[in-house]
Amino acid sequence: QVQLVESGGGLVQAGGSLRLSCAASGRTGSTYDMGWFRQAPGKEREFVAAVKRSSGSTSYSDSAKGRFIISRDNAKNTVYLLMNSLKPEDTAVYYCASRSRYTSNLYLPSRRSEYDYWGQGTQVTVSS
After folding, report:
1. 124 neighbors 17 (Cβ within 8 angstroms)
2. pLDDT tens, position by position, 86-125
3. Which helix (H) or strand (E) holds 24?
4. Nearest CA to 86 among 10, 21, 6?
């Protein structure tokens, strides 16, 4: 089992920045990939970004590309999401996820079903 705890959410003005953190505990040694998803009111949970625990390679959704940066610190078992140039449409609950099933170094999962563990989420609100 892996436990994930997100932090760093809050209220920010459009154009501002926030950094989310996700601290993992438990059987973290079996983790292959970490990801961030978000869910706005009345919408499906959607992929934001993912990082490969071993190599640090990353992938992003089109909406996150160029504005968000995902990174990991394996020594701290923590993954981060730096969000820049925030827009009101980025308002959502942001969830951290991890995958303990094997994935190739060439592939980063982006579907909810591909992740095994989830945090409780942290609210991000961007005001216009």
Report:
1. no
2. 999 999 999 999 999 999 988 999 999 999 999 999 999 9
3. strand 18-26
4. 10
Calculated CA dihedral for residues 75, 82, 59, 119, nearest 10 degrees: 70
pLDDT in tens, 12-23: 999 999 999 999
Dist. CA 29–CA 44, nearest whole Å: 30
Under 8 Å between Cβ of 122 and 18: no
Do residues 74 and 80 lie in contact, with contact meaning Cβ atoms separated by under 8 Å? no
Half-sphere exposure of residue 123: CA atoms within 13 angstroms, side-chain side: 5
Burial (CB < 10 A; 0-12, 13-18, 19+), residue 53, is buried
Tokens 């919408």: give the residue: 43
Residue type, 1: Q
The upper half-sphere exposure of residue 45, i.e. CA atoms within 13 Å in the direction of its Cβ, equals: 16
What residues contact residue 16 under an 8 Å CB cut-off, 6+ apart? 86, 126
